[in-house]
Structures are given as structure tokens and as C-alpha cells.
TrEMBL record:
Signal peptide: none annotated. InterPro entries: Agmatinase-rel, Ureohydrolase, Ureohydrolase_dom_sf, Ureohydrolase_Mn_BS. Its EC number is 3.5.3.11. It comes from the Bacteria. This is Agmatinase. It is an enzyme of class 3 (hydrolase). Pfam families: Arginase. Keywords: Hydrolase, Metal-binding. Belongs to the arginase family. Agmatinase subfamily.
Length: 313
């Protein structure tokens, strides 16, 4: 097994090119086993913009990342070759469907080469073209941490906003709703269509009140039961956490997960057949402290550990 070149991690954290977790820059699938990509796009938001700056600030904060996980002792950089493949080069930011095509075009060669990808958004609309770029042979399962189900139909004339990626993915046969669990859902809505679609299509929806009653370990067990051993994707919207912990996001909802609960939840997914993961909706302009971007970087490291573990197997 060839490991990641981690020489840049020996530099002072304020030196060098600020790649994700100070991994090497990579331009071709043959250079990596796991790629980390930025998708600086927030043209699909329904409220506050700013997630377009997410990848850049997550990169900055990821310079604080260290290699060896303090709980498991696992070093993802020693397990395989991890590289920063850069940002999606957008040719048309003002047309959602054309922007999504740019995402597909950029990511497809990596997935076609059998690579696992870790994505930093961007708003949550990007996950649908990520699924399209993956071109799974069978519909994916998904563990989805979020305040919102993101299963609306149309908003303000578009079917491809950050409120609809998983409805579109089910319709396209890319996502298996019966192998999908949505965790942390909360907040009032002007329409219950998203909640109803998730439930009626067969998704397991864990509203935050049920999460509190069940406890983290029981929710982990439920997530593992739902997705089973089939190919699975992990999608994490930082608004799934309480805005006390993640104020830098476009559609904050109070009463969410804590950082400790979220980390425990993610770590409980070890051993799943993960094919990819994303962290989305980090909007740095709303958090001058940088803490939300630090959260994003930490969630990406935790996801990287899961992907590297599954790569080994």
C-alpha cells in the first residue's frame, strides 16, 4: 500500500499551499486513491448566500488537521494516497443546471476510475450532480445529517435547488429511499411536502425530538440497519448542528445536534460500504470566528477516516 506524501504536514501550519489537510495537489485519478474536491457553488440556495466560500475556508482551517485519530489510532494518510484535486472549474455560475453539468464533468473521471471522493461544498444542491457523476450500478444508500430533508420539488421556478437534491436523486434511480436515513430534521416549514415525500418514499426520518429520545448509540444502530452493507454515501449539512456550533451557514435552525453528538454519530458508521461523502453549507461570511469552517474541516477528516478504512477493505 502506497501512503500519502505528508511532507507538507511537517511545515508550520501557516506555510505552504493551503490544500485540504495539507495533502498533495493531484490532477489525475492515477495519483490518488481518495480525492478531496472543492465545489464553490451556492447558486441553489433559497435564503442566504455564502457557501461558495466554504471550500476555501475549510482548506484554511484544515491546516490544523493532524494525521492520527485520537480514538481509533487510525491514520488515513498512511492507509492510502489522499490528494486535493482542486475546485470544480465553473463555466456558467448563473444557470443551476449548467453549473451542475460542470460538477459532473469534473468529478466523473475520478469516480469512473474507481476512486472514492470527499467533497467540500458549496450548497446542498451539489450532491445531486455528485451522484450523477458517480453513476452507481445500483441506487446508493445514504446517511444524511441535516436540519432539512432536502426533498422539496420546485422552489422559485427551479427543480434543482439545495432543497431538492434527494428528491431528484430518487427520481433518477440514483438513491434508494429505503436505504436512506435522515438525521436531525427540524424547523418549521411553509409546506410539509418535503417531510411527506421523504416518509412516503420510504426514507427513515429521525426528527431531532426522536434523536433526543433514542440517544446517539440507538440512532447509530438504526442508521446501520437502514443502509445495510450496500454502497452508501454520507452527506453532512452543517446546519444539522445547532447554530451555537455552526453559525456560519445559510439556513440555521436552532435546537440541533452538538459537535460531540455529531462526532460520535459519524464514528459509529465505521465499517459501512462508503463510496463517497460531502460536507456542505459552510458559509464563512456569517462566522468571522472561523469556527464553522473548523467544524467543516473536522467533519471532513472524520469522513476521510471512514473512507480510508473502507478503501482498505
Amino acid at each position: 500500500m502506497i501512503a500519502t506524501d505528508t511532507s507538507a504536514q511537517n511545515l508550520p501550519r501557516f506555510c505552504g499551499i493551503p490544500t485540504f489537510m495539507r495533502t498533495p495537489l493531484a490532477s489525475h485519478p492515477s495519483e490518488i486513491d481518495i480525492g478531496i474536491a472543492g465545489v464553490p457553488y451556492d447558486g441553489g440556495v433559497s435564503a442566504r448566500t455564502g457557501a461558495r466560500y466554504g471550500p476555501r475556508e475549510i482548506r484554511n482551517m484544515s491546516s490544523l488537521t493532524r494525521a492520527i485519530h485520537h480514538v481509533t489510532g487510525f491514520n488515513p494518510f498512511a492507509a492510502c494516497r489522499v490528494g486535493d484535486v482542486g475546485d470544480v472549474p465553473f463555466t456558467n455560475l448563473y444557470d443551476i443546471e449548467q453549473a451542475h453539468e460542470d460538477i459532473r464533468r469534473f468529478l466523473r473521471p475520478f469516480f469512473a476510475s474507481g476512486k472514492k471522493m470527499l467533497i467540500a461544498g458549496g450548497d446542498h444542491s451539489i450532491t445531486y450532480p455528485v451522484f450523477q457523476a458517480m453513476q452507481p450500478v445500483h441506487p446508493l444508500g445514504m446517511v444524511h445529517i441535516d436540519a432539512h430533508t432536502d426533498t422539496w420539488d420546485t422552489f422559485a421556478g427551479s427543480k434543482f435547488t439545495h432543497g431538492s437534491p434527494f428528491r431528484r436523486a430518487v427520481e433518477a434511480g440514483l438513491l434508494d429511499p429505503r436505504r436512506t436515513i435522515q438525521i436531525g430534521i427540524r424547523g418549521a416549514q411553509n409546506s410539509d411536502s418535503g417531510w411527506r415525500y421523504s416518509l412516503e418514499s420510504g426514507m427513515r426520518v429521525v426528527f431531532i425530538e426522536e434523536f433526543d429520545r433514542m440517544g446517539v448509540e440507538a440512532v447509530i444502530a438504526e442508521a446501520r440497519r437502514v443502509v445495510g452493507d450496500g454502497p452508501t454515501y454520507l452527506s453532512m449539512d452543517v446546519d444539522g448542528l445547532d447554530p451555537v456550533f455552526a453559525p456560519g451557514t445559510g439556513t440555521p435552525e436552532i435546537g440541533g445536534l452538538t459537535t460531540r453528538e455529531t462526532l460520535q454519530l459519524i464514528r459509529g458508521l465505521s465499517g459501512l460500504n462508503l463510496q463517497g461523502a460531502d460536507v456542505v453549507e459552510v458559509a464563512p461570511p456569517y462566522d468571522p470566528s472561523g469556527n464553522t469552517a473548523l467544524l467543516g474541516a473536522t467533519l471532513m477528516y472524520e469522513a476521510l477516516c471512514l473512507l480510508a478504512e473502507s478503501y482498505q477493505h
